Structure formats: C-alpha cells, structure tokens
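Risk register update: the risk of archive-format incompatibility is retired. Evidence:
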Amino acid sequence: MKHKRIVTLLLFLLLIPMVVIGGAVLFREKHYLWITLCVVVLSLLPLTYSFERRESSSKELTVLAVLVALSAAGRLIFAWLPGFKPITAITVIAAVWLGKEAGFIVGALSAVVSNMYFGQGPWTPFQMLAWGLLGLLAGLLAKPLQRHRLWLCVFGALAGVLYSLTLDVWTTLWADNAFQFSRYAASVIAALPVTAEYAVSNVIFLALLAKPFGEKLERIKRKYGLFVS
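Archived output:
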C-alpha cells in the first residue's frame, strides 16, 4: 500500500512538467498565467491526496474543520487591515502540533473558505499553495518550533515574507501574462508595507495563540489518540 501511494504521488508530480511542455508546444501564444495556474493546482494534489488516503477519524476531521473555521473567521474579522490576518499563525500552530499534513490542509482550505467572502478567482490556488506550503514547512520544523518560542516567532515573520513573495508571482503573471523580473521586483517593493504588516501580525498572533492553542491541541491528541501516523 505504501509503494502504491508513492507511485501515485510520483504520477501527480510527473504531470507538472508534462503540463509545462504541453502548454509551450500547443499554445501559439504563451499563456504563462494559465499554465502556471495548472502547475499550482497540480502541486496541491499530492499532499491533499496523501491526506485523503490516510485513515482519518471523524474527530481528526472535526479538529481540522474547527481550525479552518477559526482561521477564516479571523481573516474576516481583520478584513479592515489588509496585512493583519491570523491564517498563517493558525496554520503554523496546526502543523507544529498536529503534523505537516494537517498544517498543509488547514492552510490550503483556509484560503478557499475565507475567499467565499473575499472572492474566489485564479489567485485562490496561489493562496492555497502558499499557505499550504507554509504549513508543510512548519510541520517539517515542528520540534524546534515547538520547543523555542523565539524560533516560532522568527518563522512567523519569515512566513509573512515568503507568502508575499509567492503572491507577487501571481501579480506579475496576471499583469503581463509572462514573468518579467522587473515587474516582479516592482511588485515586491510596492507590497513592502503590507508585507511588513503581515510579518508583524504573524509574530503577534503566534505569541498570543501558540501556547493556549498548542496546549489544547496536545491535550486533544493525547486524550483521543489523534494524528498518530
């Protein structure tokens, strides 16, 4: 069964270069935006598929649903501050205490659910990928992040920067239908105030939420035997 899962995931990953090559060959005009969008969607599939193949209990799904709901609600509450949102913080907390797959799922689904209010569009998969990968990365670094609150806050600040850099790729592709470094650099510079605000907000939310949320999630894990791989 494990080998079958690995083969399936590899097939998903092989689709990515096939889409890039096929798009370059079949399209007379280089539709970079839509090719990239397909690549982003395909990038989301392997870990999502891996999670779906796990024997997740209804209790695990309930915990994840609550975290996604809190994350989306937090983004809605702070909608009046564009760069001040708790999604990354809650995604990181989920990853550190529940595992990288849980972090990826919480981050990716938080983008979809919150965009039911903010608006869905081609940018949604980029947000899903960005928050999902931040959850995955936090899960891979779970032990040091859980032990050292300073490193957790530093990671939160860096996560804000990484998220912004990823979404600036979308901005560049949408503006030019091609990736131009000059446009990307201009987008990064123009977004610096919001990026700084987002990085600071991640630190604030992690400093406030990591301990109480982490203790609750750890207690739930031990009491019900959840998220044990």
